[in-house]
Amino acid sequence: MERKMIEVEETGLTFETEVDLDRLKALAAEWLTLIGENPEREGLLRTPERVAKAWAFLTRGYRQDLAEIVNGAVFPAEGSEMVVVKGIEFYSMCEHHLLPFFGQVHIGYIPGRKILGLSKFARIVDMFARRLQVQERLAVQVAEAIQEVLEPQGVGVVVEGVHLCMMMRGVEKQHSRTITSAMLGVFRESQKTREEFLSHLK
Ligand SMILES: [Zn+2]
After folding, report:
1. Is residue 68 part of a domain?
2. Are 183 and 156 in contact (CB under 8 A)?
3. CATH number at residue 159
4. Is residue 67 part of a domain?
């Protein structure tokens, strides 16, 4: 499929997409009609176009590549102390309702031979968050990606999220957070390591 640059007007951010924006735009217009709206009224005239661009942006993680993201930022490890990166913001869309969930990801790992530039952890989180997701899988995918790139002694990932699909539909109390985690290697095998990691998150 053709790759082209489009500009997301809300943020001014430019990114590449393979999404067929014209078809998505036509679908968004039909969607508006189906929910009882008139896509021809003035306030909605440019909405299908905005929706198509927004969705191309919100799902751009499908079109990103792990190797490309970490490229040039893997360095030799000098020690084997636990590295903890806390409070990485994420914004994702739940795959059950196509509504947002968002929050923070905390990552810990104990290096093997390699370490990763700190800014790359946020890029990895973003790559998996910018897809349709469930929070459990987001934690697992981030952990497995770090495992794959760094082959560390172990990695732990904790995700804290609030889910608009729950809150807006009244399923969940406002402000309640969902916490999921994934532990690999020594983070899975050693309670002491896991506890050290979790104590950093308090
Ligand atoms: Zn949902």
Report:
1. no
2. yes
3. 3.30.1130.10
4. no
User: What would the pLDDT profile of 20-51 be if each residue is shown by its tens digit?
Assistant: 999 999 999 999 999 999 999 999 999 999 99
For residue 174, report the distance from its CA to the centre of ligand 1, in Å: 15
The Cα–Cα gap between 38 and 30 comes to 9
Taking the C-alpha atoms of residue 166 and residue 146, their distance in angstroms, rounded to an integer, is 30
φ and ψ at 15, to 5 degrees?
A: -150, 165
pTM of the model: 0.92
CA distances for 93 relative to 55, 83, 85, 135, angstroms = 10, 28, 23, 10
CB 63 within 8 A of CB 6: no
Count of domains for the chain: 2
pLDDT per residue over 73-128, tens digit each? 999 999 899 999 999 999 999 999 999 999 999 999 999 999 999 999 999 999 99
State the distance from the centre of ligand 1 to the C-alpha of 192, rounded, in angstroms: 34
Q: Checking DSSP bridges between strand 132-133 and strand 83-94, what pairing results, if any?
A: parallel
Question: Do residues 93 and 177 share a domain?
Answer: yes
Phi and psi (nearest 5°) for 3? -105, 130
Q: How far is the CA of 16 from the centre of ligand 1 (A)?
A: 27
Catalytic residue annotation: 94-97, 135, 163, 165
The pLDDT confidence band at residue 72, using thresholds 50, 70 and 90, is confident
